[in-house]
Input
Amino acid sequence: MSKPLIREVPPTSWYLRHPRYLRYMAREVTSLFVGAYCVLLVFALQSLAAGQASYEAFLVALRSPASIAFHLLALAAALYHAATWFNATQKAMPIQVGEEFVSGNLISGAHYVAWAALSIVILFLAGVF
Amino acid sequence: MKERLVQLDVFRYNPDTDTAGHYQHYEVVCQDEWVVLDALNKIKETIDPTLNYRWSCHMAVCGSCGMMINGEPKLSCHTFLRDYAGVIRVEPLTHFPVERDLVTAPDDFIEKLKRVKPYLIPKEPKPISEGEYLQTPAQLKKYHRFTLCINCMLCYAACPEYGLTPKFIGPAAISLAHRYNQDSRDGGRDERQEIIASKEGVWECTFVGACSEVCPAHVDPAGALQQVKIASSIDWFKEHLLPGGGK
Output
């Protein structure tokens, strides 16, 4: 009996085989920044609860070059992550009206509009305007 | 007719004598409008009759001639030589055992396909004398895209999750289950959910999306799988949050 050849998938380097896998890994890596930013917000709450001096020290730390660099990176990662998510909605949530399906761009576009609207509300509540 | 000299590095494996695969270089004169399958046929007819590969229809319908062409899962009958420069590397579909040369063993996929019951399970069986199960054009359109699958397995070769976790039911089988679940004449969703909503089912998918990118029939398996995830999540919430399990 002849034996079929089994070709193992390299478990730690498979994503180097094709650019589309690298794009996927980039999307997944952005979630680390989103997670890290959530941890930062927890620290913010903790310092706020610890009193005025603690919170002001936290605000000073936010103005450090390292913190600004992290915020820029986290913003870029969050934007990329959000865009991949919104672009996926048209696949995950098709809407059929009568016989025809609503355009995928309309579904994704509606998410972008909602995102922009909510961002404006949050900026308004934060006193930016 | 315009001709071109085509160079191919073709994966070879003889299960009776080899312990690993190797690449064999061929140079063959081809016509400009030929596809990779034509080049392989010419090699087999004029240079090396020992070369093994599967094909049947030569028109992207039967799904037999799937191969890796320069690292991309493709139907070799649907891949034009003129689109490639330099040496073309031809390998068997990844993630499947190689039986010989470019021939892979599809047994795992066929077994998974059977498990998801890809056929109509009527809600209420009725005798032929009562007539057809009627369906509106809108009801047909709801699932039509997912009927286009030709079982070529390119999506399995593209899916890294299937490569890393072979128990994963995979893109084509879940898409076909979804096709029947979406069919207004069908009543078999509960039976299929046991398979496709399990841990080896749709939750192994991390939405790489490669399946939809390589699908030659534009089935969009990635879309089907995300829709199954949403429907399965709604099932879970109904079961756990609604009185009586939402039944």
Notes: Chain A touches chain B at residues 2-7, 9, 11, 14-15, 17-18, 20-21, 24, 28, 88, 91-94, 96, 98-101 (CB under 8 Å).
